[in-house]
Structures are given as C-alpha cells and as structure tokens.
Write a structure and sequence with these properties.
Distance between the termini of chain A: 93 Å
Structural class of chain B: alpha+beta
Strand order of the largest sheet of chain A: 1-2
Radius of gyration of chain B: 24 Å
Bound molecules: iron/sulfur cluster
Low-confidence stretches of chain A: 1-17
Number of strands of chain B: 9
Number of helices of chain A: 20
Strand content of chain A: under 5%
Order of helices and strands of chain B: HEEHEHEEEHEEE
Strand order of the largest sheet of chain B: 5-6-9
Radius of gyration of chain A: 29 Å
Number of strands of chain A: 2
Oligomer: heterodimer
Mean pLDDT of chain A: 88
C-alpha cells in the first residue's frame, strides 16, 4: 500500500516543480520497533566572542607597532611584528574580515538599511585609520597581513622614478572608487573577488588567482609592495589620513646633516629629497598657474563625471539584477516571436530545457516581468548617479596630481613622504645619527 | 610658517576625525525600514520597532552566510563555487520531517525499478547518501558528510517527490565566512543571505530541535 502510494507520487511529480519547498507529502511513520530517530546536527559558527578577540589583537598590534616605530625606531622589531601579523591575521584568521575589505561593508551599510554591519567590522575599518591619523601608517608597517607578506619578499627593490610612481599611483584611487560604487549599489564586493592573497592564506586559490598572486609576489621582489603602492584601495584612505598625522616616523632622530646615506634606503620610493631652490618661480608665473588650476580642476571633474555617467550601462551591466532583466527581456522577445509562429507546445517544451539557471530561478520565484524590470531600472538609476560621482572623483584625483606636480615645493632635508611612507623603519638604520 | 602648517594639520586632523565619527554614526544608527530588523527579528509584531535602534546597534551581531531552501533551485553551483573544496555547503537531513520512504526520491534515480543500493541506482554521485532498513516498509537515510559535495541532486529529488527533508545548508564548521560568499555572488536565485550568527540555520521542519546543537567533528550526520 505504502509503496503504491509512493510510486503514484513518483508518476504524479514527473513534471518537476522548480523550487522544492519542504512539504509533508508523506506522514511521519509510526515505528513499531524501538527505533530512535537521529537528531539533525547543526554546527555552530565560530564564537562571536572570538571576533572581538580579533579586534583586541588588532588594537594591541597597532599600539605596539606604533610604539616600535616611533619610540624604539627598530626595524628588527617591526619585522618581527609583521611576521606575527602575517601568521595571525593571514594564516590563522585566513584574511576575513580585513580592513581593506571593510570599506565595502561600510559603503553598503551606508546605503542599504537592511545590511547589518557588525561592530567588529566597523572597528576593523576605523582603528587603522585613527591610528594612522596620529602615528602614520603603522598599520601598513606590520599589522596588515597583505603588507607583511609583500614586505617579506622585497629582496631587490628598484626605484621606479617619480613619474612612473605617480602614474601607477592613480590605480588605487580608481579601484577605491569602483569598489565603493559596486558595494554601495549592492552589486559586488570587488576587493574580495580580486583579493590576491586570501587564496594563499587559505591554500585554496583558483588557478587564475594563483597565477596572479605568483606574478604579484615575483614582481614584488623588485618592485617592493606592488599591491600596497599600486592597487590597495585602503591605502588611499591611509595615505590621506597619514598626511595629517600628528606624529610620524622621521628618518633621523635629530637634525638631518645631509649625509645622503639614506637616499636609496627606502624600497618604496617614499623618501622626498631636498629641494633647496628658494625662489624658482616668479610671481606672475605662479598667478598664471593658479588661474590655470582653477579652470582645470572643475573642467576635469565635469568631463570625467560626464564620461562616468555615460558608462552607466557598462558599469551596471555587471549587476545581477540588470543581467537578469536582460535575460528576461530576451526570453520574452523570443516567446513573442514564437507566439507568432505555430506549434507553441513543442516550442515551450524545448524552451524549458534551454533556460539558464537564472531564468529557471526567476520563473520559480514568481516574480513578474515588470518587477524584474523595475528592480533593474532602479539599479540603473543608482549607477547613473554613481557614474557621475565615480567619474568626478577620478577627474578630481587627476587634477590634484597635476596640481601637485605644478606647484613648487621647498624642502631642506631628506624626509619621509608622509602619505606614501609605510613606516617600515628601514631608513632609520641608515642614518648615522643615533638618538 | 611651521606654525601655520601645524595649525592646518590639526584642523584637517579634527576634520577627518569628525568625518569618521559621522560615518560610524550613520552606519550604526541608520533608520530601519520597519519590516525586518537585521538582527533576526521580524519587526511587524515587535512593539519596540521604533525605539530599538540603540539596543540593536549595541548588540550588532556577527553574521554568517546561510542559504534559504525556499529560494534554492538546486542548480549545483553550491558544489563548485565555494572557495573550499569540497564545498562548505552540504546536504543536511531534517529527520523530523522525513517520511522514511522505501522509494526515496532523493536516493533513487527516477525510473529505478528494483530498489537496491546498487551504485547505478543512486542519485548521489558520491554515494554519500546511506540507506538503512529500519522496519517494513521504512528506511532511514543518512548523509556521510565527508563524502557529500553539496551538489543538491538528492535535495532536488527529495523536494520533488518526497517531503523535502533533505536540505542544503552551509555547514559552519567548514565555512570560512568569507566577507562576500563566493557562492552567494553566483547563486542564480539569490538564496544566500547573511543571518545572525546566533541563528545560523535556515533549515525547515527541524521539529523540537534547535540550531546550535554541537556538531560531531566530521563523521556521519546522524
Ligand atoms: S597599503 Fe594596503 S595592503 Fe599595503 S599594508 Fe597598507 S593596508 Fe595593507
Ligand atoms: S547556488 Fe543557489 S540555487 Fe544553486 S544550489 Fe546553491 S543555493 Fe541552490
Ligand atoms: S546527492 Fe549531492 S547533495 Fe545529496 S548527499 Fe550526494 S553529494 Fe550531497
Ligand atoms: S562563505 Fe566562503 S566558505 Fe562559506 S560557503 Fe560561501 S564561499 Fe564557501
């Protein structure tokens, strides 16, 4: 009897429903033997308390490294700390969540009210920035596992020259802009998607990623910290906060005596050389330059902003809601065309087999076509505004770079560039003046 | 000159601090949509939905990834898109709602005539689903977690022909809790969501059992 019922169900449900909701089709049996039903095992996640422990470790590490950099001025100890951070945040914690990625969580939380931002993630975002604001980029020196792993392989650093440094230095700004744009629209977390190191920390990188990481680390032997200098989006924020830091690592503990011993000591080209030419430019020339800049900045912002808004479709094309709307549109066009011709039955049967998983899921979800379209158009609208902002931001960055190169500087000594310096404390060893 | 520079620096520092403060305030005390509180409560029946912003902010929970079977279409990407291999998603059996069928839609390939445990009869590509005779006509089905790759074939069969007691779930002893789950971004039905870490399961029909039952390290899910 029971089997017959089962079999009839087997026949009845030959047309597979798409979403298989748990439905009690068969009653729970009443066992005659004393069979005890096993219980379903549900593993619990990592204890929440441990996430706070991570924050504590971050805090202590930041404080310790700041002290080591500013007070002890010891490269050896900073190096030891970077090994610890690589081991703890890298290989033990396996990279998630990291301060770099937390940019996206914060951006998403700002725009999507249903997204939870755990306090710990917010702290991972804030703490390094606050420390940098007071002590320089000590986070980069020896707390960030990404920086640490690259620091370990920088055996033969070469200078890239200031022009190349500046041009490549634009990439992190673009990366940051895109990451915020995609996170704020709820499209994707691109920093996590293209994270080169997490696959190493977990020993499970995909082949493509492994190749990329390999190339990055190999080039990192000659171009020290390539990710930090030419990719890291969090580095942009740290760079700007560090420029206004209260204290910062200095090459010499006292007065610079222009001995030039430290000149080539920085693997990251982060030492600014003296520029002693006192009055390089006449006043009228300066006025002319300033006037040019006041025109150039808004012009670049607008041009790039406009270009960004025109890229709305391209940018939004990555979004899953927009992709789905396109697929649904293509499908309904095809069906319209089919409706014109005969034999609808045979056509639709074949259709079901050709559907992508996305279309299958859409059909199963019970959403209407117009719902899908309106969702997609809401996303498109966000990308229009986002495109303007992203473009404008890019324009501003480029304008600032040009301004930075145009305006004169005066510098007496060899000093660390507060923005770019990772506070690794290498240069301190080269200075002949000790304490 | 240095005095003015120092002053400007201090000003900027204050500005940046204020900006960071504002930003954190904005993300912590953001307005809720009033429908569902992101901390795992349904706001519709909640009396303090208006005033819960502060407490909710303070107890801001860790979240973990979980998949919702009411949306899942068993596309099979769970098996292939996880950063772990084998996937952290595995089939989990809600015994409380199992029918203990002889002809199990999750165990047998459709069209199987003679119900034996021969490998060619089994839906599961890795023979992870085990069938054990209990009493006539009932059979118990358990999952060998080590073998299961989370492909969802059995889940589809069970959902289509049976009670839907076989369900895919993220197993949190294996999951790395990636900041963005790599299955979530490829799931065609947006079945993956972040759930509060203290309610990590979205299983249906567990009966009395509550999530959080300690896991046996590895071994059979039974
Ligand atoms: S620049 Fe970025 S990747 Fe490099 S150490 Fe700093 S935060 Fe880490
Ligand atoms: S990817 Fe999504 S639809 Fe596919 S099996 Fe996993 S949860 Fe289900
Ligand atoms: S059919 Fe797939 S999901 Fe089900 S037990 Fe086998 S491997 Fe796991
Ligand atoms: S969060 Fe990561 S480990 Fe967990 S299921 Fe998703 S991809 Fe797999």
């Amino acid at each position: 009897m029971y089997i017959v019922r089962c079999t009839s169900f087997f026949l009845l449900f030959l047309l597979l429903p798409l979403v298989t909701l748990p439905i009690q089709r068969f009653p729970k049996p009443e066992f005659e033997t004393n069979y005890t039903q096993p219980s379903t095992q549900i593993p619990v996640p990592r204890a929440e308390l441990l996430a706070y422990l991570d924050v504590l470790v971050l805090l202590v590490a930041l404080a310790l490294v700041s002290w080591l950099v500013l007070k002890k001025r010891s490269r050896l100890w900073v190096f030891a700390m970077s090994v610890f951070s690589l081991a703890y945040f890298g290989f033990y914690r396996e990279g998630c969540v990291c301060s770099i990625g937390s940019i996206q969580n914060v951006s998403l939380a700002l725009f999507d009210h249903s997204f939870v931002l755990p306090l710990t993630v917010l702290l991972f975002f804030l703490l390094p920035l606050v420390f940098t604001l007071f002590f320089g980029r000590t986070f980069c020196a020896a707390v960030c596992p990404f920086g640490a792993i690259q620091d370990l392989v920088a055996f033969k650093p070469q200078s890239l020259g200031s022009r190349l440094n500046t041009v490549l230095g634009i990439i992190p700004y673009l990366y940051l802009g895109l990451a915020v744009l995609f996170a704020a629209t709820g499209t994707d977390f691109i920093i996590c998607r293209y994270d080169p190191f997490v696959g190493i920390f977990r020993f499970n990188a995909s082949f493509g990623m492994f190749l990329f990481t390999g190339i990055l680390l190999l080039s990192g032997v000659f171009i020290a910290r390539p990710y930090c200098r030419f990719l890291c989006p969090y580095g942009v924020l740290l760079n700007w906060t560090s420029r206004f830091s209260r204290r910062h690592l200095t090459i010499t503990p006292k007065e610079c005596i222009q001995c030039r011993l430290c000149e080539n000591s920085c693997p990251y080209d982060a030492i600014d050389f003296p520029v002693t030419d006192k009055s390089p430019e006449s006043r009228p020339l300066m006025v002319k330059k300033m006037m040019m800049l006041t025109v150039l900045v808004p012009f670049l912002v607008l041009i790039f902003g406009y270009t960004g808004s025109r890229m709305q479709d391209t940018l939004a094309g990555v979004d899953y809601r927009v992709k789905l709307a396109k697929e649904v549109m293509a499908l309904s066009k095809m069906q319209d065309a089919k409706a014109g011709s005969r034999e609808p039955g045979a056509g639709s049967r074949k259709q079901v087999q050709d559907d992508s998983f996305e279309i299958k899921a859409y059909k199963a979800s019970g959403k209407t076509e117009s719902q899908v379209y309106s969702e997609a158009s809401a996303v498109l609208k966000k990308f229009y505004l986002g495109g303007w902002l992203f473009g404008g931001f890019t324009g501003l960055v480029i304008a600032m770079l040009i301004a930075g190169r145009m305006l004169p500087v005066y510098r007496k000594d060899y000093v660390t560039n507060k923005g770019r310096c990772f506070s690794c404390a290498r240069c301190t060893d080269y200075c002949p003046i000790k304490s | 000159m240095p005095g003015r520079r120092e002053f400007l620096n201090t000003l900027m520092r204050g500005g940046i601090l204020a900006a960071l403060g504002l930003l954190s305030g904005a993300v912590i005390f953001r307005s809720r949509d009033g429908k569902s509180c992101s901390y795992g409560f349904d706001c519709s029946g909640c009396s303090r939905s208006k005033s819960c912003m502060l407490p909710a902010a303070l107890e801001a929970r860790q979240t973990v990834w979980q998949l919702d079977m009411t949306k899942c279409i068993q596309c099979g990407r769970c098996a292939t898109n996880c950063v772990m291999s084998p996937s952290a998603v595995k089939c989990t059996h809600a015994f409380a709602m199992c029918g203990y069928c002889d002809l199990c839609g999750g165990y047998f390939k459709p069209g199987t005539k003679i119900l034996t445990t021969a490998a060619e009869n089994q839906l599961c590509p890795t023979n992870a689903l085990k069938r054990k005779f209990i009493e006539d006509p009932f059979f118990e089905y358990t999952i060998d977690e080590e073998l299961c790759i989370g492909c969802g074939k059995c889940v589809k069969g069970c959902g289509a022909f049976g009670n839907g007691s076989l369900q895919l779930q993220v197993r949190h002893d294996r999951c790395k809790n990636c900041n963005e789950c790599s299955i979530a971004r490829n799931c065609p039905s947006q079945a993956f969501t972040r759930v509060p870490a203290n309610k990590p399961s979205l299983m249906r029909g567990l009966g009395k059992e509550r999530p959080g039952t300690a896991a046996k390290k590895g071994g059979v899910d039974a």
